[in-house]
């Protein structure tokens, strides 16, 4: 695989992973560019860069699947218990505040 292709894939994954959409941290993109330029001299660096891209893609897909199949993951313990009870048709009793 060409270093240019791996660099472009890395930039695509960084764009998809960035919190403000499509806003890449300049330090990250410059580090990936430097690695891509070094990979012309060594195939090991190119393989590592390709592995990094595969890891970023897998993490993004994992987060997507986790959110899809486990929607209670980001709730607190109390909210999770209430949602589980509601799922089977029960309502949680209201606890008095002290």
UniProtKB/TrEMBL annotation:
Swiss-Prot/TrEMBL GO biological process terms: mitochondrial proton-transporting ATP synthase complex assembly
GO cellular component, one term: mitochondrial matrix
Taxonomic superkingdom: Eukaryota
Name of this protein: Uncharacterized protein
């Amino acid at each position: 695989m060409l270093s240019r292709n791996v660099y472009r894939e890395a930039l695509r994954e960084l764009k998809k992973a960035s919190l403000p959409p499509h806003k890449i941290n300049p330090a990250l993109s410059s580090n990936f560019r430097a690695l891509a330029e070094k990979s012309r001299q060594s195939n090991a660096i190119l393989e590592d860069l390709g592995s990094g891209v595969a890891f970023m893609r897998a993490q993004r897909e994992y987060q997507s699947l986790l959110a899809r199949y486990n929607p209670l993951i980001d709730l607190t313990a109390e909210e999770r218990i209430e949602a589980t009870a509601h799922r089977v048709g029960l309502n949680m009793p209201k606890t008095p505040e002290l």
